[in-house]
Design a protein that fits this description.
Protein name: NAD(P)/FAD-dependent oxidoreductase
Helix content: 25-40%
Number of domains: 2
Oligomer: single chain
Shape: elongated
Distance between the termini: 21 Å
CATH superfamily of the largest domain: FAD/NAD(P)-binding domain
Bound molecules: flavin-adenine dinucleotide
Cofactor: FAD
Organism: Anaerolinea thermolimosa
Low-confidence stretches: 1-9
Strand content: 15-25%
Keywords: FAD, Flavoprotein
CATH topology of the largest domain: FAD/NAD(P)-binding domain
């Protein structure tokens, strides 16, 4: 294979230079190669291996996508970028991702909650498929190659300069550098960057109500950040550092920016019984007086969803003494307990990692990109795909789907242009 990189003489421009060997970059390159075989395509990756995040994704199992096949519903899983992705998903959505991998020899399975994984339960299956296909298509891949700067020439081509001084001349560029590392390249060409901040994390909360309760999970709660009026619902897990589980991850994604602005120190309220209003909870508590009057309140939890040990803590937090029986419970105590159950207040003290998935909120401003092609509206010939854009999804396969879909649309657009 001819290598076009030269540090002295200008080289013939290759058709496509992909900056970033992640899923978005690979998928864009493969889409162009499949649509127009024998295109000259080069992927530059700064790390020692490509597809590093895919390797660790989904706890090493790679949650490839989510079995949500209606583009309009799918967009609701993206705190940022949902509106822009509507048309992209109309062209390439999870059903297409599944079809693409299966037609390239990767068997996939859908778990009960809709997450899609390789049957092998190993991200290596996805990596071998993408790298094997790239090799088969003659795509040149260079690792240990960090692009330092990117310029557009007066003739409308691009020159990328690598950390070792190597220059690459290309007619089109896909910037697919993910949530870290490549924003300066887009900014250098005039793009605006929404400041990157973390999304998908868990909460550190030091509260006596959670002491000794690690491992307890509650199937459904409603969380609320009053400062920003952001809600989320779902299962909750009490951990040794605070709270985790789908409800927390969702809130961390929708509230990523406001939480960052407040240095991850904000008040949170928990409704432990989201199916009931405060009045409904009060009525249920009052009912217990006649049916279980002789039992101690701490010893009898009338709500199936709340674990007994958690219930005890909530009762004590409502200032109801340990020895109080249901028959002696006062109206004020019932009001306090109902408030504790529906709007208990907790102080978030910081963020803690979620090991299965992590994503960056922020990136290239979306109205500077034409989502019919993923081409920059400011710099013709520059395409952007994946997490480098100000797009991020909830946990569950939505972030990789963004990479596949935007990569595919960019690859097809370039195939149509050349
Ligand atoms: C621990 C973890 C688990 C995850 N699990 C899942 C999951 O199961 N399902 C899911 O949907 N999402 C998951 N995600 C999110 C998902 O991995 C990312 O959203 C996705 O990888 C983004 O793809 P990308 O190609 O845009 O960027 P990336 O995967 O970040 O790839 C960008 C590449 O560009 C390279 N690069 C950056 N700057 C330069 C430069 N200047 N020159 C050359 N190369 C450069 C980087 O080294 C990187 O390899 C997970 C993320 C993490 C961190």
């Amino acid at each position: 294979m001819v290598s076009y990189n030269q540090s002295v003489n200008p080289a013939p421009a290759i058709e496509l230079l992909v900056i970033g060997g992640g899923p978005a970059g690979f998928f864009a390159a493969l889409t162009l190669a499949e649509a127009r075989p024998r295109s000259s395509i080069v992927i530059l990756e700064k790390a020692s291996t490509v597809l590093g995040k895919v390797r660790i994704s989904g706890g090493g199992r790679c949650n490839v996508t989510h079995a949500c096949f209606d583009p309009a519903i799918l967009t609701r899983f993206y705190p940022r970028g949902g509106r822009e992705l509507r048309g992209v998903f109309a062209r390439f959505q999870p059903a297409d991702t599944i079809r693409w991998f299966e037609s390239h020899g990767v068997l996939l399975k859908t778990e009960e909650d809709g997450r899609v994984f390789p049957v092998s339960n190993s991200s290596e299956t996805i990596i071998s498929c993408l790298t094997g296909e790239a090799a088969r298509q003659g795509i040149e891949v260079h690792t240990h190659t960090r692009v330092k700067s990117l310029e557009r020439t007066p003739e409308g081509t691009f020159v990328a300069t690598c950390h070792d001084g190597t220059l690459w001349h290309t007619r089109r560029v896909i910037l697919a550098t993910g949530g870290e590392g490549g924003f300066h390249l887009a900014a250098g060409l005039g793009h605006t960057i929404q400041p990157p901040v973390p999304s998908l994390f868990t909460f550190k909360i030091h509260d006596p109500r959670f002491e000794g309760l690690q491992g307890i999970s509650i199937p459904a709660v409603r969380l609320w950040l009053p400062t920003a009026n952001i809600h989320s619902e779902g299962a909750l897990l009490i951990t040794h550092w605070g709270l985790s589980g789908p409800a927390v991850l969702r809130l961390s994604a929708w509230g990523a920016r406001v939480l960052h602005q407040h240095n991850y120190q904000l008040a949170l309220t928990i409704h432990w019984l989201p199916g009931l209003s405060e009045d409904g909870v009060m009525a249920h508590l009052k009912n217990q007086r006649s049916h279980h009057g002789r039992k101690r309140v701490t010893a009898w939890c009338p709500f199936e969803a709340i674990a007994q040990r958690l219930w005890q803590k909530l009762v004590l937090s409502a200032e109801i003494p340990e020895t109080t029986t249901w028959s002696t419970l006062t109206r004020q105590q019932i009001v306090r307990l109902a408030q504790e159950l529906t709007a208990g207040r907790y102080e978030i003290a910081g963020k803690a990692p979620f090991k299965d998935e992590f994503v960056t909120c922020g990136g290239v401003t979306l109205d500077e990109v034409d989502f019919r092609t993923l081409e920059s509206r400011l710099v013709p010939g520059l395409f952007l795909a994946g997490e480098v854009l100000d797009i991020d999804g909830l946990t569950g396969g939505f972030n990789l789907q963004n990479a596949w879909s935007t990569g595919w649309v960019a690859g097809r657009a370039i195939a149509g242009k050349t």
